[in-house]
Amino acid sequence: MIPCPRHPSQRLGLLWRRIACGMIGAVLLSATPGGAAADEFRNSLGMVFHSVKGTDVRFSVWETRVSDWNALLTSANVKWEHRPDFPQDGSHPVVNVMLEDAMDFCDWLTEKERESGLLKDTQSYRLPTNAEWDAAAVLVDTGNKPTQAAATVPQPFFWGTAWPPPSDAGNYNRARIEGSQGDGFEFTAPVGRFKPTVDGIYDLGGNAWEWTYDPAAGEVLSGTLRGSSWMYWRKDSMNPAYRLTVEAETRVPGIGFRCVLEDSDTKSEFESNITAEKKEERDRLMSKAVVSQDEVKQAMMERRLQGTQDKGETSVAAPGRAFVNSLGLKLLPLPGTKVLMGEHEVRAKDYKAFVFSAGDLSTLDPQLRSDLEHPYVGVSWVDAVVFCRWLTQRERTQGTLPQSAAYRLPFKSEWVRAASENDPAGKQRAYPWGSDWPPPPNRININLSLLPGSAQPERMAVKSFPSNALGFYELAGNAAEWCADIGGDLGSHRIYLGGSWKSTDLSKLRVDSEERVEDGNAFPDVGFRLVLELEGDNSINP
Question: What is the DSSP letter of 65?
Fold first, then answer.
């Protein structure tokens, strides 16, 4: 029996220890690395490998797929607890893998295919080094004649020099790239959907960041990410030379990996063949790739955000400044308080992330299949509170929330302050738009019988109407909103405010009007808005 090539991490699990090294079979394929049949090698999982000029390894033409990863999990009889909270099928790149998870996969696949006879004892799978990745990205003089821009262009991209990236250039966070026409994918895309390199390698740019590893003495503490991902939008991150060095334990839904196949009998140091001029140019490009750990952690955890962040926003929650969280929800400072409040109600797309994180999609609400920009309604007060707790824990773990901070529902006093626009005279408004009836045209989504001809008799997407002076949207109409307060003497009643698109009673639209209902009830026109408590008594999270 051939010994395991490397002692695996403690993380992918105990997983590796459950696999009897060398005891797993594989299907012997006709093509073998270095054989005369063809340059292309297809392994037992259907992974395809191509030679890359300037290296002595073969690159997987795709990022490691969910189907490949599932083969390992099945062999180990282990449940994977880190699936992303968005849908993927087997053709998508596996994400949420740490550096040593990726290395463990390579070790497992090596042993599996050596034992089956598909690989020789001198052949093994591993992660690419940065130098090999450079060659695949045509950053060094390898004899290739790429149709894409070479690294001598001041700001090269895989697709050339155009900005924004063309729709077929790769899967990036185009919602935050001004002028982008989109690429058809909200999250990860099936591998191989965009243009390959001259060597036939797909998705080196976009889809998922890819771990690379340069062997060094001592424990594996960090690795380098290459290629950007579906979460990223920064222009410099799309430069093929861009590198992010992160902690080995970084696990986010924008990070995957790609394998290379090496034969130690033919291994050589191709770096020695790179001209001094090319080395200098590569070093110049890479010198710009410097980011902080906080920026890496936040940017890679963000989903596709809508619009462009304003100058006053932060990527880590801080008092007195607007904050865009990991779901793309923008929270604004509420004058006269120490809290931030959501500029609009929680959307169906935000609640969908929560549902996916739980893993049980058997009774997926129809709202979560369509109308994703609409406020999420039909949710009970209790469920809204559970959502707040989930999001708090999620972002504390990410490092975008201080450990003392917490999401919660707004108290009525906070909601009224936001709806009153902090009137300079200190007066509470009758309605969120002022004291007059009817409201100005196109300001509110309520029942047509109250306001004939000026609103739709149905729920609408958030931000369909203008914001108030503080930047908050739809504090009256569209969807009523749960508050944190307990209503009634018995302590079992909850309140909601604001009226909805179904409201037929004018009084329900008043700033101070509240509806009291028993705990646990849910209504088809009641949703909720977030408050983020940054200072003070954060135990007030009902």
Answer: B
